[in-house]
């Protein structure tokens, strides 16, 4: 269980209550025991004193009577002793005479016995010494035998080593044959000889080790000579037996057989000779050890024999001394007899007087003893009385002291254990009130979401009765409290282990409490960090209807709605179980015990707490739902999932589920008129539940909570967490691998994008709208641009989405960018793939010439930089939306790039909202993209981007949350992460700094190919036109280019090339007069820029007077006419055409530019104009002249550039024969039928706003392009100034 730190946590409160209960109960019980012990002690002291007094008096009287009787008996005894002594003296004198002879005989016998005993002891000592010597010799002999066994073992070991050379070596080693060992010096003691023997044995053991290491001995030890001979013989025998002619084969192989047999025999004999010195040295050493051991045994045997002889001589000497003792004792006896008789006679004369004096003295002793003992008895009795009284007083005092000591000790415990806990419990109410104020309008108005979640959440009170809790209170007045013994403490949920509650009984009361808890949870958690799943199958949501306002602000707060149906309940609980799976498998793993621990480390990527609110359980709960609820109850708290359950006790619940709920939840059951908390001890289990706010107050609070939760589902990890410091920009190398952090993985680690090693070469990204896919692309690009220089990585960026995500990389000229496409067309996307494919082929040639296999090898071999190429396509499926040549070509190119690019440092990252649908990349190609990054997506896409058994992405819930998998979607390789947030301003600032860094390091400013599909082309980007304006041509070129716009391909600007050939005319068809007029102006200006001042003429037929700006800008001869002057102008052109046809003139190029041909009625072809060859009286027919110029003017340098609004007008003004002369046709958006009429293709029917088609009938090509927009500002003025200045220089 996690450590409980919040004082309001229910486990902490329960711990305090149990401590209070145990302490008070223990102190009360021990105080009662002290009282009982004190009373028993006083009573025992009194009883003991009385018993001692009675016993003392009886004992004193008995002792006095005994003393008198003893005194009288002693006096009588003294008299009897005196009489007995007189009789004894007479008998003693007689007995002394008769006993003297006995004493003499006894003395003689004593002396003889002492001599005999001494002799016997000497024999026993000699025998014992002999046995000890024999035993010592036997032990020594056994040691010698053990040494001999070791010697034999060494010999056997040596024999095993040289077993192929028996029996000679065996006799030498085992028997000592043919060798002579060291002779033993028997003058030495046995221990010295044995030590020398053991030294020789140790030497032999060392020699045995050397012998074992000898390669010859080792070889023949494991490969006996006989085995070699058998193998050789068998081999030759097999060859002979296998031969068709065995006799001939035998004759052929006989010499070889002899050599083969003699060779090992010779080697064996040579090895024996080489081993002989070593074996002989070891044999000598072993034999020396045997000789020395035998000598030591002989020396020991000789020593024992000598000791035996010495002991025999000592015993014989002792026997001779005994005989001498017997002869001397008779003489001593006679002398003793005479001396004794004289002594006895002298003593008998003195004894009577001495006996009388002794008798009188003894009687005096008896009298004195009697008097003295009587006095002692009296003093002893007095002392016993005093001691008895003192003992009684001491007993009473000891009982009093023991009781007081016990009370003092209990008081210390009371002060140290009871009062602090009691005070802490008393203070909890104030803490709860301060941290969780009551619901009132002023507090709701000032409430703001907290930064961190509370770990305890009160929702009522517990009423504590200390006397009932502890089973009694101490009676002594010294046990005081600092507050009442009956008080209230907060009833709270505690996270994570006690964050669930289950209420039984009345549904209305339970719903009120659950509403209170829900509102408390929302007000004590950071905004959006607590979300709820509401289940109410009985009340159909009426009890929680007020919470539905939260969904108006943030739908995730309440999981969309209140769920009432069985299938809905199953689905919601399944989702919760999936969430628990995700938390366990993706976040906790083996690193964190609970989600709270993970969240502490995760910071901004902390996971939300989830609360499952159930009313009326188990109503509408199927077996499936019950099992899922069991899983939640078992594992939910660890994963931040908690239960707020109202249970209907009238309905049966599966015992296992009921048990799990009781373990997981604080269980409140009805008791009289209140609820009782089952887990709390009696005396502290009565509850008073808090009431939620009502009416307008509740509504105001819910709206306040909802407003604070808006957009709370968004998690932003700053980009600065993974970006390198500026001092480390451009320091990373991609030689071995392209590796860059893209987000946070778990609480502490970075998630790295790693491409270029093994099979990890390409990446596939899937995520629905709003999942953070675009942000992930920006993070990859920007962080790679910071880590790596343009020599390490380059980008091809294609975005098919309707947005401008990649525009910043083109507008800020990111030095790493080679192509930047925004709102790309399918054709341009194909062009990018072709460019990358060309790069793949180019690198293939470079690698082949350098003889290398990879980027690192090429860099090392050539010394030249070669960046890794990163092709990044967002919404790549757009290129496959039509089953046409573009999709087919793109599929082939992508497959080739994916399969072959890995070898050349070319990597592909594809992104899409979904991988489903009929048109997509081939699964085989997707299978090559091992790195998979899944953001929020549906279950179907989860299986598509990952493996078939890996639906983990379906559990992702917030933008930027993803799963990184570098094993083709295998479940075991899932790595959850949170993409960092990169604000647009921060990104642009870093891109500007990267561009500046490139300039600082002397890099030429990059000019990436930028395709901005959502905008018209910019004429400023036309470098060829800029070059012509800077340096004008000196002569008329053979072909003149009219630039129209930027192509949907990686190539130069779209151009219409005019030369002196048939069909060199251009027709522009579009309903937007403005766009057609702009394109006519731009085309005319570019044509003028490609000609010298005298090399061209422009005749502009303008029905709207819109060509003044163009006319003023051109240095060539320009004539602008309206509908009224068209006949004259056409007449002049007819005359010029006639001259040139006749060869009379070869003037400059003439461009007839017609703005809005439909406005010039005179140019409309009559039905019979092709059949009338007469011009008529009014001059040339303008329509006929126009037809003549179209058919004949091209080779003569007269070209028509006409703009028409619709196909209908084209068909009316230009019959098909005339229109066929316009080999170059520009089509803006129109119907598919009109497009088919103009270019035999409906392609123009699918053009967008800023798109046009250039159709070249002569070449059979159709090119989609973005027409140039009308340049803004003073571009025309500056361009005209450059054009005219260049013309003056050319003519000057």
Question: How would you describe what is shown here?
Answer:
Among the domains are: 498-659, Rossmann fold (3-Layer(aba) Sandwich); 717-1012, P-loop containing nucleotide triphosphate hydrolases (Rossmann fold); 1039-1283, P-loop containing nucleotide triphosphate hydrolases (Rossmann fold). Helix 16 runs parallel beside helix 23 and helix 18 (826-850) runs parallel beside helix 20. Helix content is 54%, strand content 15%. The protein is built from 32 helices and 32 strands. Strands 11, 12, 13, 14, 15, 16, 17, 18, 19, 20, 21 and 22 form a twelve-stranded mixed beta sheet that branches. The protein has a ten-stranded mixed beta sheet with strand order 2-1-10-9-8-3-7-6-4-5. The protein has a ten-stranded mixed beta sheet with strand order 24-23-32-31-30-25-29-28-26-27. A hairpin with a 3-residue loop joins strand 12 and strand 13. The chain is of the alpha/beta class.
The number of helical elements comes to 32
Secondary structure class reads alpha/beta
What would CATH call the homologous superfamily of one domain? Answer: P-loop containing nucleotide triphosphate hydrolases
Q: Note the overall shape.
A: elongated
Assigned CATH class of one domain: Alpha Beta
Pfam families: FtsK_SpoIIIE
Protein name: FtsK/SpoIIIE domain-containing protein
Keywords: ATP-binding, Membrane, Nucleotide-binding, Transmembrane, Transmembrane helix
